[in-house]
Write a structure and sequence with these properties.
The chain is an alpha+beta fold. The protein folds into two domains: 110 residues, Probable inorganic polyphosphate/atp-NAD kinase, domain 1 (Rossmann fold, 3-Layer(aba) Sandwich), CATH 3.40.50.10330; 170 residues, Tumour Suppressor Smad4 (Sandwich), CATH 2.60.200. The chain has seven helices and 17 strands. The strands form three sheets. Strands 5, 6, 7, 8, 9, 12, 13, 14, 15, 16 and 17 form an eleven-stranded antiparallel beta sheet that branches. It has a four-stranded parallel beta sheet with strand order 2-1-3-4, with helices on both faces. Strands 10-11 form a two-stranded antiparallel ribbon. Strand 1, helix 1 and strand 2 form a beta-alpha-beta unit.
């Protein structure tokens, strides 16, 4: 019998999955399972006898646990990760095609199919900074800043996503494009942009799929750029998303392993956090392949 350790964020998402409910479902499927709440101290202490870790939470919880795992010496035991998406956007789970009800997801763990997951490492803003989803400049960090001031408590995930998309639409209407130079594997792209996103997942922010071909295990990052000349097109794209309509807007996307960005604006984020820096921003980003492993469905 495989031994799992459940890391649970009991405050994530809009459905109340209790410790008791989750453990019951996992154990009924034939897994031994211990438990820790990521809200408590010493949650990072894992038994060497554990076969894999289960993360029940949203993208922020996944990042927090990944940060703890990436600090471990590589000679220490490395743990595969199983996701029970329980947040609002769940961009990481969506990229890995992990969805459905909890019972069905747990059944897939018997297949033991592992997916390598790269990370992006950032140099130039101090410390050991990395991303799982994306690093970007422009409208998305501005969205993070605005959403911090909006009370979305009480709404379900769908309502929160629609609210965030509506706020993003309002931002795009008046956002002033900024000068940016992107050097992707030695090739220079420059101009004025309202958005430059270096993405590891296919979707970002309020579950907007901007890099449909993104594969977080392919050893490359997807750079999605929206130039000033496409601002109106992106407005239409967002409006159609808000109204539940299809849109065929094609994003300007390139793939690269090593990236340098010089951005003259003030809005920058790493995953779901807006960061402070001294403008202009000048960072280097490199892909670090296969740093994590996730259990994924066949």
């Amino acid at each position: 019998m495989k031994k799992a350790h459940l890391l649970h964020n009991p405050t994530a998402g809009d459905t109340d999955f209790s410790k008791k409910e989750l453990l019951s479902i996992i154990r009924k499927e034939g897994f031994e399972c211990s438990y820790a709440s990521v809200r408590n101290e010493k949650w990072e202490e894992f038994s060497v006898e554990t076969d894999f870790l289960i993360i029940a939470g949203g993208d922020g919880t996944v990042r927090r646990i990944a940060k703890a795992l990436l600090k471990r010496p590589r000679i220490d035991k490395q743990y595969p990760l199983a996701l029970l998406p329980h947040g609002t956007a769940n961009n990481i789970a969506c990229t890995l095609s992990i969805d459905g009800n909890v019972k069905d997801i747990v059944k897939t763990w018997h297949e033991n199919k592992l997916k390598k997951f790269d990370i992006g490492k950032i140099y130039g803003i101090g410390g050991q900074v990395f991303f799982l989803e994306g690093f970007g400049c422009g409208i998305f960090p501005r969205l993070i800043k605005v959403m911090e001031k909006i009370d979305t408590e009480g709404g379900n995930a769908e309502e929160k996503i629609k609210t965030a998309r509506s706020v993003l639409y309002d931002i795009v209407l008046t956002y002033e494009a900024q000068n940016c130079k992107i050097i992707a594997d030695g090739v220079v792209h420059s101009g004025k942009y309202i958005m430059v996103e270096v993405m590891n997942t296919s979707s970002i922010g309020p579950n907007l799929e901007l890099a449909r071909s993104a594969d977080p295990g392919d050893g490359e990052l997807d750079i999605v750029m929206i130039p000033e000349s496409h601002q109106k097109k992106f407005e239409s794209f967002l409006l159609n998303k808000i109204n539940g309509e299809e849109d065929n807007y094609v994003f300007t996307t390139i793939k690269a392993k090593n990236i340098e960005i010089v951005w003259e604006g003030r809005d920058v984020h790493v995953d779901d956090e807006k960061i402070k820096f001294s403008a202009p921003l000048n960072v280097k980003i490199e892909i670090q392949p296969g740093m994590l492993e996730f259990l994924v469905p066949e």
